[in-house]
Amino acid sequence: MDQEKEVIQIRDVTQDEILLSALRLFTTKGYFSTSLVDVAQLLEMENTSVIYQHFKDKKMMASQLYVNIFDSLDISVDDISRKNEKASEQLKGLTDLLFKLTDEAPDVMRFLLVLKLDEFLPDEKQIHETLPFLKVVKIIERGINSGEIRAIDPQLACAYFFGIVNNTLRLVLMGVLDKKADAYLSQVWFSAWNTIAKK
Predict the structure, then answer these.
(1) How far is CA 114 from CA 13, 26, 122, 195, in A?
(2) CA distance 78 to 60
(3) 16, 115, 149, 194: most buried by Cβ count inside 10 Å?
(4) Could you list the pLDDT tens digit for every one of the 199 residues in the chain?
(5) Residue 70's domain spans which residues?
(6) CA atoms within 13 A on the CB side of 162
(7) Which residues of 124-161 are buried (b: 16+ CB within 10 A; e: fewer)?
(8) Dist CA 152 CA 164 (whole Å)
(9) Is 69 in contact with 55 (CB distance < 8 Å)?
């Protein structure tokens, strides 16, 4: 009698699927409470062997998420800048993007606004040192030079403007505000813009 060989099929998981699962867990359980076993379980895998083919540890996953998210934001800032001439239009486009991401990709926004990235990615740049942020400061500088924005320090103007935007989005992400982010967009834009607009 021929002995039947049991064939175990290992599900082929892509790097992007692993990253999305890690992102979900980092933003719900917390980075330090998430293990590679948790990621494998969320992917409905029996073990972590496939994950190790792509990432040696969860810090490597977090670093890749950081790079992917900030690269995507950088492309978006460039795209918004190309499509809009005035600083006010560019800042409105960025605000719209952040509100849309909060409603459609809340884990990405939790990664950016809720997690304390420096606690587990100490070697990565602080948010205010990233290319997208530096480009936003340049938008504000151009707005100051054109007379749209008050003549204040561009970093300070950025802090005023995005302080209102980001704090509102944090409240949405944490469930303190019970509506979708889009419900607050117009009033947040009005408030944020008026903190820096030249009257």
Answers:
(1) 28, 11, 16, 23
(2) 27
(3) 149
(4) 444 443 334 456 789 999 999 999 999 999 999 999 999 999 998 888 889 999 999 999 999 999 999 999 999 999 999 999 999 999 999 999 999 999 999 999 999 999 999 999 999 999 989 999 999 999 999 999 999 999 999 999 999 999 999 999 999 999 999 999 999 999 999 999 999 999 8
(5) 63-196
(6) 19
(7) beebeebebbebbeebbbbbbeeebbeeeebeebbebb
(8) 17
(9) no
Here the tokens at position 48 are: 């972590």
Q: Is residue 169 part of a domain?
A: yes
pLDDT of residue 47: 86
Specify whether the CB–CB gap between 193 and 161 falls below 8 A.
Answer: yes
| CATH number reported for the structural domain that contains residue 42 in this entry | 1.10.10
75 lies in the same domain as 106: yes
